[in-house]
Specification:
The structure holds 2 protein chains of 2 kinds.
Chain A lengths: L2 H14 L1 H6 L3 E14 L2 E11 L11 E17 L2 E7 L2 E7 L8 E2 L11 E2 L9 E16 L4 E12 L12 E9 L12 E10 L10 H7 L2
Antiparallel strand pairs in A: 1-2, 1-11, 2-3, 3-4, 3-5, 4-8, 5-8, 6-7, 8-9, 9-10, 10-11
Chain B lengths: L1 H15 L4 E12 L9 E9 L11 E7 L2 E8 L2 E7 L2 E7 L6 E2 L4 E2 L9 E16 L4 E12 L12 E9 L13 E10 L10 H7 L2
Classes of the chains: A mainly beta, B mainly beta.
């Protein structure tokens, strides 16, 4: 394999991991969450529940309720390509709340399979934002894809963890988050009024970005010799 | 009168198209999804939340799941994405007191697949179809499936007319961002639902139907 080929292969390999390769040397599964989102005037927001949070975050899932809220993610652009819709957002926050006051007041009800007209009900948005701000993350980007003919899609986002009462549980080098998940707007997903999609996702802690180094083209060539 | 009957029938069709549903399982895991028609899928993982009407005991038992005997039937390109259709197979949830299914994030290791399918079969769903769309441009995918809950030790907790089911979720293969253990190629995160089955059909004469609307 000649040098040019090695460089091309190298670029292709790094392109496969494009954005994540910039960020991740190590990742850590942090939490699993689900809920509902909607978009209004180009701003995406959502809320929901967190049934699982992993170390190093310190939690008490038995006694406290953990909820999440996405706010102010602004649609920058969108496009349609062969039945696939792509949406690109910037800004916005992902906040995790720890509610210590019982009874837990963030409530969702879908447990009435036998009622054919049931569409699900969810408590007021403020019930997902009371308690303490457990973790605050600011989105660097959030992208989602939607397959029109199938009524489902997926998403991913990168964020900086910047605040919350439990930020110090996370080592400084791991204070970035990467999230992915699936979304659907099918009728059977029991999506409450005022929401468009049901989301199910996970959040990972990822290391600080690897630093870039400037070099000449000759330098890159000599690296592979 | 004919118009009234037509409207009534249309209304009933519309109403039956909005089934009542309930999320019953929230799960995540790892898959080795074949991309050759006729190949079988391997996927195992953890059921982290189980909802009513099912009862469970997360303190005393570990709940895991596996897709079993699912076969790839069709591959259709869709721009930068590919639509994979799988037929048959099962979505099985297991209840195991040994808690031997493990995942080590730091080492990116998951225990042997057999540790996810031991214990008792808590719930079984027979899959009709599973449609997975994988987008090579984003490294992400998403899926949904149509199924019927048919077995397991807790099947009787699901009312007979609620045993049709659906599931959906997202997938990623960005192993440079998330841990995907050796032997698997995607990380999955999804939910399973029960939905109300079709209303029972009553036989009747045309005259009786007309009488209903008089």
């Amino acid at each position: 394999m000649n040098v040019r080929m090695v460089i091309v292969v190298g670029f292709i390999a790094s392109a496969v991991c494009l954005v994540p390769s910039v960020w991740a040397q190590q990742s850590q599964f942090s939490m699993d969450y689900w809920g509902f989102t909607h978009e209004e005037s180009g701003v995406l927001s959502g809320l929901g529940f967190i049934p699982l949070i992993e170390p190093p975050l310190v939690v008490d899932l038995e006694n406290y309720q953990y909820t999440w809220v996405i706010e102010d993610a602004v649609l920058d652009s969108s496009r349609v390509d062969g039945g696939i819709e792509y949406y690109y957002y910037s800004g916005g926050t992902f906040k995790v709340y720890e509610d210590t006051v019982e009874p837990w007041n963030a409530v969702y009800s879908d447990a009435d399979c036998q009622d054919p007209e049931w569409v699900g009900s969810i408590s007021e948005p403020w019930t997902f934002q009371d308690g303490e701000l457990f973790l605050l993350a600011e989105f660097q980007y959030l992208n989602r894809t939607y397959y029109t003919d199938y009524q489902f899609g997926d998403y991913e986002g990168m964020m900086d963890l910047t605040g919350g009462t439990h930020l110090d549980d996370i080592p400084p080098l791991l204070r970035h988050g990467w999230t992915f998940g699936g979304a659907t707007d099918q009728p059977w997903a029991c999506i409450p009024e005022d929401y468009e999609y049901r989301w199910d996702g996970q959040l990972f802690l990822v290391e600080d970005p690897t630093r870039t180094e400037s070099t000449t083209w000759s330098g890159i060539k000599s690296f592979y010799r | 009168m004919r118009t009234a009957i037509g409207l009534a029938l249309l209304l009933s069709v519309l109403l039956s198209g909005v089934p009542g549903t309930a999320q019953i399982v929230d799960y995540w895991g790892f898959s080795d999804f074949p991309q050759t028609v006729g190949s079988g899928i391997v996927e195992v993982g953890f059921a982290i939340e189980i909802h009513a009407p099912l009862t469970y005991d997360p303190e005393g038992f570990q709940y895991t799941y596996a897709f079993e005997e699912l076969m790839l039937a069709e591959v259709v390109p869709m721009g930068p994405a590919t639509v994979y259709t799988y037929l048959g197979g099962f979505f099985n949830v297991y209840e195991d007191a040994s808690f031997n299914a493990t995942y080590d994030d730091a080492q990116c290791l998951v225990s042997d697949p057999a540790t996810f399918t031991d214990g008792s079969l808590y719930l079984q769903a027979e899959l009709d179809t599973l449609t997975w769309i994988y987008n090579s441009m984003t490294g992400r995918g998403s899926y949904d499936a149509v199924m019927t809950y048919t077995g397991g030790t807790h099947i009787d907790e699901i009312p007979l007319d609620c045993r049709e089911g659906m599931m959906f979720g997202g997938t990623t293969d960005l192993s440079c961002t998330v841990c995907i253990p050796e032997g698997y190629d995607h990380r999955w995160d999804g939910q399973a639902f029960t939905i109300q089955g079709p209303s029972a059909v009553d036989s009747s004469t045309w005259g009786s139907v007309k009488t209903l609307f008089r």
